Amino acid sequence: GTGDNITFGAAYARFMVDHGFDPDDRDAVKFVDDEELAYVMLRYRQTHDFAHVVCGLPPTLYGEVVLKWFELAQTGMPMCALSALAGPLKLPPAERRLLRSTYAPWALRAGATCRRPLLAVRYEDEFATPLVDLRRRLGLSPAPPVVLTTTASTTGRDGWTPSDQAAGPVV
Q1: Residues 167, 15: contact at Cβ < 8 Å?
Q2: Dist. CA 71–CA 156, nearest whole Å
Q3: 61 vs 66: CA distance, rounded Å
Q4: According to DSSP H, which parts of 35-167 are helical?
Q5: CA–CA distance, 32 with 142 (Å, rounded to integer)
Q6: Which among 132, 137, 141, 131 is positioned nearest to 115, based on CA atoms?
Q7: pTM (predicted TM-score)
Q8: Rounded mean pLDDT of 61-66?
Q9: Are 6 and 125 in contact (CB under 8 A)?
């Protein structure tokens, strides 16, 4: 489906195909001795691409940094804080300004007000759910649309506009 009728599963499948990802390609969790914590980290990795789709963020450096701000608001995990603060150092100045003015505030607000931690969503049970309905149930508005205009961002896979229909570049 398209528009408001696209299911979460269809949006996720399109995201994975468009970006050449395979859900079975995630690295195993290492260096975590606690079994419960190892499971949380595994689930974090398993749900990462689902979060991109629900939030409407592409798997670019910019999209990853925005998602880390969202995850920081939800989890308080130190690795999210480190990525959210260090990741922008690799962005061009115009993108850092946009992150500061628009996307970090969106991510912090959306992460804090989302009705459930995204790690706790049983995405596998939501594949037939319309994406807009899943977002509505979570109290989550997707990232605001933007077209990055820096030279580096308008060439190749880094130029993007988040879509309400699915995450990924729409140039």
Answers
A1: yes
A2: 26
A3: 9
A4: 35-55, 61-75, 78-86, 93-98, 104-113, 131-138
A5: 32
A6: 137
A7: 0.79
A8: 94
A9: no
> Which residues neighbour 90 within 8 Å (Cβ) at sequence distance 6 or greater?
61
Tell which wins on pLDDT, 25 or 118: 118
Rounded-to-integer distance, Cα 78 and Cα 69, Å: 11
Phi and psi at 3, nearest 5°, equal 60, -140
Question: For residue 22, what pLDDT band results from cuts at 50, 70 and 90?
Answer: confident
Record the tokens describing residue 20, joined without a space.
Answer: 């050449």
Which pair of tokens denotes residue 147? 């077209």
What are the pLDDT digits (tens) for 68-104? 999 999 999 898 999 999 999 999 999 999 999 999 9
Scored b (16 or more CB within 10 A) or e, 98-111 reads: bbeeebbebbbebb
CA distance readout (Å), 157 to 7, 47, 165: 24, 22, 18
Q: CA-to-CA distance for 70 and 80, rounded, in angstroms? A: 9
Structure tokens at 87: 């990741």
